[in-house]
Amino acid sequence: MSAVPQLRALGGVIGLSAVLALTAVHPYSRQILSNNISYPLPKGTWRAIAIIFAILNLKNVPLVWHFRVFRSMLVQLIERQRRPFPPRALFLPLITKSAWTPLLELDYNLHKSNSTYFADLDVARAQLMLCLLRTGIQRLMKGEESTMVEETRRSGSVARYGVENHAQEALKGGGKFLIALGGISCHFKKEIKAYSGYEIWTRVLSWDRKWIYLVSHIVKRGLAKPEEYVLQTGRWGGRSTELRGNKEKETSEEARARRKEEWKSGIYATSVAKYVVKRGRITIPPELVLERSKLLPPRPPERKEDPISKPMLEGDENADQSMISVEAAQSMQDTSKKSAVLVNGAETSDMSSANATCDSTTSDEDGWDWEACEKKRLEGLKFAEMFAGLDALHDEFDGGVDGVLGSYVDLFW
């Protein structure tokens, strides 16, 4: 059915509902209905109907969204105590399952309304952020941020703004820690039908000096079966992660590429969001919090003074955006240089050589070191920078200097 007939049908339903409602509230109409409809309903019928309706739309009952958020956070507090978070799992997704799409989340096309995606994404992202940053925030609150005052001074923020006393006060306890959502974008691919289940796979996409970027894929429930559940020790994955021999590895890579094509048919939407960590007016770089959370491999000595890990004051962010892009480009250039090898006297670029370089400086048994982590971050930063560039659209508001089409209300006033 096209959009025009659907709108006509919707208008007819609304008009009929309005007539019935006005008829029901009129005393004379109620008297006629009472005299002519003699079939009595059992006692408590309307209460049972209301309870069933509330259960079928439980996600939309007042305060249930708050319960979902705090329950997810409580689950992560318990899970992190049971098993430590290995650094190699920094970019792995966290799955949040939704049982169904209730009636109150449907639009006039009878599928999940676009506006309701964001409430579910809030729950998924809150769970992942607590999982990632809980340890780092706790360590900073316990006083391990003392070195950040000197780092802030070296970064130049204090010298430019002359507020060293405020920086020390904020970092040493004068300001409260805050994790704030700075922006979100959602791109829709397929509809979610009424009372269909789905999952939200949320993971770290990248980070720069100010923002940590998350990507969420909303997919059909049961679309993919993970190979391993890192934080849930008693849960088995779908396939073994141990591969023996090149032939078996090639088969696994081919199967992964084939499955990736199959998964595309089950993706409903993809969302990108960015978060910032602050204490007072001080912006705490994500890399610093992740390092305090013990989620980053050891930094090489030549990368100790990277500006991406330095705190900064409010008003300093815009001045550092170009520096972020330069830093990303420089890091990409360094990575590409490390992948250059000499073959028969000629210089060529080989990704396998880059992987070999990473493996030669591993910091754990899984081959996860700083270079591997940085490579993954820069891969996501290509998408994150495009998303961050949308902030410039704030300047495109013109206040109607050339006029507007009209002004209308969306309800009654």
TrEMBL record:
Residues 294-308 have a biased composition (Basic and acidic residues). Residues 294-314 are annotated as: Disordered. Keywords: Membrane, Transmembrane, Transmembrane helix. The keyword Methyltransferase does not apply. InterPro entries: HotDog_dom_sf, THEM6_lcsJ_thioesterase. The keyword rRNA-binding does not apply. Pfam families: 4HBT_2. The chain crosses the membrane at residues 7-28, 48-67. It comes from the Eukaryota. SUPFAM superfamilies: Thioesterase/thiol ester dehydrase-isomerase. PANTHER family: PROTEIN THEM6 (PTHR12475:SF4), PTHR12475. Belongs to the lcsJ thioesterase family. This is Capsule polysaccharide biosynthesis protein. It comes from Viridothelium virens (Speckled blister lichen). The lineage of its organism: Eukaryota, Fungi, Dikarya, Ascomycota, Pezizomycotina.
